Amino acid sequence: MKIYNVFLIIMLSNVFVSCLIGGNVSDPDPWNNGDSGEVFWTDPDTGYKWSGISSDKFEQEEARLYCLNLGKDETSGWRLPTIDELRTLIINCPSTETDGECGVTDNCMESECYNSFCEGCKFSEEGIYSKMGDNDALLSDLNTEINSPWTVAFQFGGVGTDRAKNFVRCIKRK
How confident is the model at residue 174 (pLDDT cuts 50, 70, 90)? Predict the structure, then answer.
């Protein structure tokens, strides 16, 4: 059985402070500082590096620029995640977790890929469907054929589309 922890990040005078709440972790501080000064968390299951959540909501193109500029320069490697990558953060909702029955993937992005399994699980504001304790919707870099961005709404672990501004977590592959 995997135990995931909830992380709280507080920004004080441009300095990130992270606190670990609950669980057993071999690394007492799971947040790391990158070469460009960015703060990130490495998912032990995938090896993906995830940024802290944005303080503002963005439309998709703004979110792409936000990730591109996250490091000190454009070579930092940060980018907006794909829907498959975002789904690796889902827990406690088997139908939308990686390899769940939800039909939306990087290889199937059309509206007809969406099925009832993508709706997720019972609503919760406790962050129980996110490895990182998120309880808002996060944007992916992939769109439907009608140019609507795919998102993961962690309030219910659901996968869907949303043209509204949403929060962002950027990703850097291994």
Answer: low
Determine the Cα–Cα distance for residues 38 and 60; give it in Å rounded to an integer.
21
Residue 17 lies in a domain: no
Domain count, the chain: 1
Please, is 22 exposed, middle or buried when counting C-beta atoms within 10 Å of its C-beta (0-12, 13-18, 19+)?
exposed
Looking at the DSSP assignment, which residues form a beta bridge with residue 171?
50, 79
Is residue 12 in a domain?
no
Residue 36 lies in a domain: no
- Which of residues 2 and 170 earns the better pLDDT score? 170
**Tokens 């936000």, residue?**
66
Report, as an integer, the average pLDDT of 151-163.
Answer: 95
Range of the domain at 143: 54-172
List the one residue out of 60, 5, 64 whose CA is nearest residue 31: 5
Rounded to whole angstroms, the Cα distance separating 88 from 170 reads 13
Classify residue 8: in a domain, yes or no.
Answer: no
